[in-house]
Specification:
275 residues; alpha/beta; Immunoglobulin-like; four-stranded antiparallel sheet; 5 helices; 16 strands; 16% helix; CarboxyPept-like_regulatory
Length: 275
């Protein structure tokens, strides 16, 4: 799929008259849509309404915002104002490539699919989340730039478990017949394919035992939107922004996400700019 710049416009963007949806080009006597502040859906809607007719538009130099969706435009008059035209090769190179992850969640106790579970790809800079459908299936598309040597896929059942516990008709099960899902993490390598893979989820485990204080333990790390910050600043951000998304990992999962071998606990806070 290629972007076809049918007829580049020589008129400067700043010289055009303002209009509700962009500019009006007196040279061409046409309205020019400003695509630089449009979402992918808004861009598609504009071309659908055009019904195959030519659309005049202003596009950003970086096509990363629209590369996934508007690459198959066939007739587009292009205006970049004072910016020189760029070759097709430059446009195509900005296309983001993805790694697809897909699978199914099954509860070990009753062998049934688990609908409505959160499936989250965790990266210290951001997270990408989806939910399993009514058949327990999920699909995620991860930008390749976020794929590391080791990666973490997190199955979160907190919402489902809260509904189960709050159910007034629930009978408290014994350990063998537990009805609470265990939050589960999967570590996979960059070369490992997670396609249509079935994951068997255990019932939640409870631990009993003595508590001791350990000395000389590995350090804890605190990240906010991918930036390593102090515990004090982390706690302050968390307290002031209760709507921010928060995750905590230990052991191998923490090592994989932080890319550090000497770490005890990794705490991640996101300003919900993630996908």
């Amino acid at each position: 799929m290629k972007l076809n710049i049918h007829k580049p416009c020589s008129e400067k963007w700043d010289a055009m008259q303002d209009s509700p949806h962009g500019k009006f080009c007196e040279l061409c006597s046409k309205h020019v849509v400003d695509f630089t502040d449009k979402t992918e859906k808004e861009i598609w809607d504009i071309f659908n309404r055009a019904g195959g007719k030519e659309v005049c538009g202003r596009l950003p130099l970086s096509f990363s915002k629209i590369a996934a969706g508007v690459i198959l435009i066939t007739n587009l008059t292009f205006s970049q104002g004072q910016t020189p035209s760029h070759s097709f090769e430059t446009i195509e190179q900005s296309t983001t490539s993805f790694t697809k992850l897909s699978g199914k969640l099954i509860f070990k106790i009753n062998k049934k699919e688990i609908p409505g579970a959160e499936v989250i790809f965790i990266h210290k800079n951001q997270y990408i989340k989806t939910q399993t459908d009514e058949n327990g299936n999920f699909t995620l598309e991860i930008p390749n730039e976020l794929i590391s040597k080791k990666n973490v896929l997190y199955f979160n059942f907190n919402v489902l478990n809260e509904k189960t516990i709050a159910n007034p008709e629930r009978k408290i099960p014994n350990v063998a017949g537990g009805d609470i899902y265990e939050n589960t993490t999967i570590i996979f390598t960059k070369d490992e394919k997670i396609i249509d893979k079935t994951f068997v989820i255990e019932s939640q485990k409870f631990y009993l035992g003595g508590i001791s204080i350990m000395t000389d333990s590995p350090p804890d790390y605190y990240f906010f939107d991918g930036k390593n910050i102090s515990e004090k600043k982390f706690r302050k951000l968390q307290e002031e922004n209760p709507g921010y998304s928060y995750f905590v990992f230990e052991g191998k999962e923490a090592q994989a996400i932080a890319n550090k071998s000497y770490i005890r606990t990794l705490r991640l806070l996101y300003s919900n700019k993630s996908l």
